[in-house]
Amino acid sequence: MPKRHRPRRGSLAFSPRKRARAAIARFRSWPKGDGEPKIQGFAGYKAGMTHVLMIDDRAHSSTEGMEISVPVTILETPAMKIAAIRVYAHTPYGVKSITEAWAKDLDPEFSRLLPLPENHDTKAALKKIEELISQGIVDDIFVLTYTLPAKIPSIPKKKPDVMENRICGGDITARFEYAKSILGKEIEISDVFEDGELVDVAAITKGKGTQGPVKRWGVQVQKHKHARTGKKRHVGTLGPWHPARIRWQVPQLGQMGYHQRTEFNKQILRIGSASEEVNPRGGFLNYGTIRNKFVMLRGTVPGPAKRLIRMRPAIRPTMIVRGAPEISYLSTKSKQG
Predict the structure, then answer these.
(1) Are strands 308-313 and 42-55 parallel, antiparallel or unpaired?
(2) pLDDT digits (tens, 9 = 90+) for 281-310
(3) Which of 158, 211, 305, 325 could form a disulfide with 256 if both were Cys (CB 3.0 to 4.6 A apart)?
(4) Which 8-state DSSP code applies to residue 149?
């Protein structure tokens, strides 16, 4: 009799499958970055998907140089503002925040998220950071950025989303001077990325609530002979007698979806400001029409419509970028069916 072999159902790679702590995804690592100092991250809101016809610019592709149809995701990316500068240092207990300098004029909507700093001396805080840099204590510089969802009619909230983004390029002093120059100001998506660039995206996936083991892990629905108790949609065994406990590898019911996922090497096909170029007839499903700057990413990104999507430069790129891709057609056909 041949040996029966059946791999386990469902990957354990993302365990434990619990809900994300916040709707704002986190980047725990950043590419080194060279050249002039610049900010390394940006965020937008997912509007929907469509498709384009473009010339395949991937090296060694079987369709290189030919016109192909590519699915794309559209993100609405209005300007973000710089709220504060935060500096970090390496300590025996890991990387720790030392101090921060806040901007003077913050949007009134920012008070919905955090209490506005009172009696904060920005000049004194910046001078303290300069002294720490001169002493060689500062190892990395980040800026606190926040979105402006009040500018997007399709997003039903005014409370901004705040996140940290790293400053790269040059030495610490040059990065700090750049951070000072943008403190309290707005930055655009075109100040961070350009057409054709590869980025990594992070977002929180679509939540599906509590689901059973059949949908959550892909185990088989029991056949009639094996389900004499009347239960078909449960796991056949919870494990052996010893150890006398249920191991975490056993597929059971629980939370499904609303997990953070990071996807690598999404190519930016276009960064634009003419929203009529991408708005389909009738608007995007569950979103509406785009009225601000947008970015077009090749392929799919995690999360439903209106979800916050974060982007950073690709930390491990897999293709050589040849500049802005050549797009010959963008579908604006109605998505209403």
Answers:
(1) antiparallel
(2) 999 999 999 999 999 999 999 999 999 999
(3) 211
(4) G
